[in-house]
From TrEMBL:
Classification of source organism: Bacteria, Bacillati, Actinomycetota, Actinomycetes, Bifidobacteriales
Keyword Membrane: yes
Principal subcellular localisation of the protein: membrane
Originating organism: Bifidobacterium aquikefiricola
Domain (Peptidase S54 rhomboid): residue spans on this chain: 81-216
Family matches, as InterPro entries: Peptidase_S54_rhomboid_dom, Rhomboid-like_sf, Rhomboid_protease_S54
Name assigned to this protein: Rhomboid family intramembrane serine protease
The enzyme's E.C. designation: 3.4.21.-
């Protein structure tokens, strides 16, 4: 692998959490490849969760408006496409939902951000989250009775994309991926233990993260010597277009269209 993908040996050099709040530390962390984007996502999700809690108790109508306009639903993905992204920063008011997701993000995010670069990592995160929404849409086309009217919120679709990316990278460098497979397997089993988990988004994000990272690390031979940023622009665009096409095809059976 070339350019930014040569930084695998630095995976465990994580910056401390103080980089999330200290401007000087943030600048230093940015220059050294620290988890600035990861930290920003964590802060954004935590702030939104606190806002949800406050609104739920002080302004229930405003809380319902935020949730109803922010969650992603297969039937509304084409009508309100912003939901695909706003849903990644909303969580259930149950503290375990946001806490578990942020812990999972912190466990893999800094590794990938150092390896790929800040903006490329951010693109992977958002595209994987988009893949999670498409996973819900594919399931709606397969199971239209209930699928079109389901909704989801949370960062887990995007995080599962990061899981898939780490798995690809570990395998590429010859690292032992068994611990990662166990961790991923346990996360995939959670919907069978805890009800209300959108496993379809997990699958969609996971597949998207794997596909994009495979292209970045292998892809067209001629492009392997280009920068990670260039490859992300090219392959990220291919994945996004593919996800849009899949969404359009699935929405042929959308009862609201």
């Amino acid at each position: 692998m070339h350019n930014g993908f040569n930084g695998f040996s630095n995976f465990n050099n994580r910056s401390p959490l103080r980089t999330l709040v200290n401007p000087q530390e943030i600048r230093r962390s940015w220059r050294s490849g620290g988890p600035v984007i990861t930290g920003t996502i964590i802060v954004a999700c935590a702030v939104m969760w606190l806002i949800e809690i406050i609104l739920r108790f002080l302004a229930p109508e405003a809380y319902m408006a935020v949730i109803s306009e922010g969650v992603v639903s297969p039937s509304l993905a084409l009508i309100n496409p912003w939901r695909i992204f706003t849903s990644m920063f909303l969580h259930a008011t149950n503290v375990l939902h946001v806490l578990f997701n942020m812990m999972a993000l912190w466990s893999v995010g800094p590794l990938l951000e150092r390896l790929m670069g800040h903006w490329q990592y951010g693109a992977l995160y958002l595209i994987s989250g988009m893949g999670g929404a498409v996973g819900l849409t594919v399931w709606a086309a397969i199971e239209p009775t209930y699928g079109w009217y389901t909704y989801a919120l949370g960062a887990s679709g995007a995080i599962f994309g990061l899981f898939g990316a780490v798995m690809v990278v570990f395998r590429r460098v010859g690292a032992d991926i068994r611990p990662m497979l166990i961790w991923i397997g346990l996360n995939f089993l959670m919907p069978f233990v805890i009800s209300g988990i959108a496993w379809q988004a997990h699958v969609g994000g996971f597949v998207t993260g794997i596909a994009l990272t495979e292209l970045l690390t292998k892809g067209i031979p001629r492009l392997r010597r280009t920068s990670v940023a260039t490859r992300m622009w090219i392959y990220g665009s291919v994945i996004v277009v593919t996800l849009i096409v899949v969404t359009l095809v699935c929405n042929l059976s959308n009862p609201l269209l």
